[in-house]
Design goal:
By secondary structure, the protein is mostly helical. The chain has four helices and two strands.
Length: 113
């Protein structure tokens, strides 16, 4: 069996850098190929494209850290004269959903099968 593929760019690795590179090139009209290998964890988890950083590492951690900074900023805002009516509450479930949705958006352009 013989196959012929022609790409303007072929990216090896679907982590943060690979996805960003491929997405940028594709948005400029370049025909992009991307190869990624995901080895299931010892617990059997398979999260697909994006690697550790995108799915369970850097990206979710940074989004959760940013959420914490926003909470701290509320205290600073009130101390600086901003009036924020009512009690401000945080929902862990909504934050997790937001993080997961963000990760889906990062990967969605490449999951076309």
């Amino acid at each position: 069996m013989e196959f012929e593929y022609e790409y303007g760019l072929f990216v090896i690795g679907g982590g943060s850098g690979g996805l960003a590179c491929a997405r940028t090139a594709a948005s400029l009209g370049v025909k992009v190929g991307l190869a990624d290998f995901v080895k299931p964890s010892t617990a059997g988890s398979k999260w697909g494209l994006g690697g550790t950083c995108v799915n369970v590492g850097c990206i979710p951690k940074k989004l959760m850290h940013y959420t914490g900074l926003l909470g701290e900023s509320l205290h600073d805002l009130r101390g600086s004269g901003w009036e924020i009516p009512g009690e401000v509450k945080h929902s862990w479930e909504k934050m997790v959903e937001g993080v997961q949705n963000h990760i889906k958006v990062i990967k969605e352009i490449f999951i076309i099968m």
